[in-house]
Structures are given as structure tokens and as C-alpha cells.
Design goal:
By secondary structure, the protein is of the alpha+beta class. It has three helices and nine strands. The protein starts with a strand and ends with a strand.
Length: 166
Amino acid sequence: MRLFLASYADVDYYDDIKRDMQPYFDAKWVERKNLHLTWIFLGEQPSAAPIIDRLQPLKMIPRLPLSIQGFGTFGRPYPKVFYLRTSSVVVHTLQQKIAELLGEEPDETFNSHITLARIKRFHSEGYKHMERPWMSEPLGTVEAPIYLIESRLTPSGPIYIPIEEF
């Protein structure tokens, strides 16, 4: 089973963002119900049970929703992913705790993000210079619960199945 840890995100202005980005790239946009902040991607696992056992202490850590602020892209030479980010030390600290509970070294190169779109064809970097009301506002929140989620890939897109809430 293909697993990852994530918290669901509520993105304000999502339809505005999609509309405003159309001139700059063609993309497959993530369904609103699937928007999430990935804490760690675990990949193929034979069972979820050992992961659930190791992560039980997460249930004792108090958390508040995180604010979403800012966007960016991944990929070289042309962007492949358009995403939103949080600007919180809490994210980094919690990622370190998750890695510790799983017995892994924290991946300092991993950038927790909310994927909005997978870019198919890139037209222009003009989006970096545009000004829209939503660009200077908080763009939503990442909800406090962390879920262990199974991802089933299908031709029409991924199906996410929450297995455990922490």
C-alpha cells in the first residue's frame, strides 16, 4: 500500500487562483477535496500497522491550524508543480518529530507544501509579477489533525483513503 502522512487544507480563493494562472501554464489541478499538506511520503509499505503503532505519540501533541501564505513552483528547467506553502516553524518541528517517531533521519531537503497543480505545459513566468488581491492575503488553513493516508493511483486521478487520525 502506498502511504503518506498529511493534513487536509482549506484553500480560500482556489477558483480565483486557477483562473488567474491559466495564461501562464496548462495544468491538471488537484480536486479541492484532495488538497493537503504532505508531512512525509512513506511510499509502498507492506502494512500500515507498524506505522500506526510508532505514531501514536502524535495524538498527545497539541496542534492548531496553520495559516497558508504564499506560493511557489518545483521543477527545472521549467516548473512541474505549482504549490502553496505555510510559513511556520511548527511545520519543521513537527516534521522532525514524525521522523524521530518513525526512526528515520529528518529530510532537511523536503519542503512541506500543498500541491495545487501538476504543470503540463509552461507558457510564462509572468505569474511571479502579477498582483491579485489573494496574493497578499492568508490563503487558507491547514487543519490540525494529521492522517495516515493510503493513495490509490487510478487513470482518473488518485483516490485518498484516510486510515488513521493522529
